[in-house]
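Re-run with default settings, no changes from the original entry. Doing this only to confirm the output is reproducible before filing.
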Amino acid sequence: MIILTIAGSIASIIGLAVSLYVLIELKKIKKHYLVRVRLPEQIRELEQLTNAISKNLMDYEINLNKINLDIKKLEPILTNILSKIPARLRKKTKNMIKSLEKSQKNLTKVKVREIYEESLVFICSLKEFNKDLPWS
């Protein structure tokens, strides 16, 4: 009788360990497919905003409000991407968000140009990461 109790306890502990392992693996799979589904869409949104900033930059004084609005739209997209990407890209994303927050206070044509260039580099990094996803 005692042997059955011990065996039942051991089986219960093993079952708990297996359940925890499956739960962790399931979260990894969910995150992986969430990135695969949402990232291309978010890259397109970033490209559209970056292109809009570039076009509006030509007539900076006239389009300053549009530029400011587009820059503000970049931040929530970047914040959303932050949770889906690996650590090596997370640092770039955080730096870009900080840069956007700082630029809101004193938005000059030079600063807008820097944001535009930084966005292009970041989009390129995201595209390369997205290309590598099928192999991971």
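The domain at 38-135 is CATH 1.20.120 (Four Helix Bundle (Hemerythrin (Met), subunit A)). The CA atoms of residues 15 and 21 lie 10 Å apart.
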